[in-house]
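Hi R.,

Quick one: here's the HAD-superfamily phosphatase subfamily IIIA sequence you asked about.
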Amino acid sequence: MTLRSLLQPDWNLRKTLPELPIEELHKRHLKVLILDVDCTLIPHSESRLPYVMESWLKDAQDHFAIHLFSNNPSNYRIGKLGKELGVSFTTSASKPSSKILNKVILEMNLPYQKIALIGDRLFADILTGNQLGLFTILVKPITINRQRDSYQRLHRIEHQLSYWIGA
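And here's the predicted structure, written out as tokens:
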């Protein structure tokens, strides 16, 4: 695999997660959605789901198994969210390494093609999912005002780097 292909999401939504049409995911015959947490589901360092995200997740759970997959080491914060939603979760995921994700997927006993990884970071989420051949979806990050500038700079840098390598 080339670096270009590893950084190319299967679907660049250019919108936040709640704007991702669940019916489109269903058409792809997916069984599991592995979701990044920070800035994909909730703003970094927040612990409450925005209402629109909670609503989207409830709809998604009618069609898919959900697994939260986060580099965040806070078992309390991520675990609390996972328990509230009634979903499995992994903390300290070590993205972009795919080792821990591969272990999680093997426990699911499903083909990799039936699993999507959804996140807001090219060099963490998309790279990790593409290493394993998952269906990868890049979404816009959700942030709160005080975080927006630093995350926008980081995302611009990531996208510029991927552009330079042709992804």
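The first helix runs from residue 3 to 6.

Cheers,
M.
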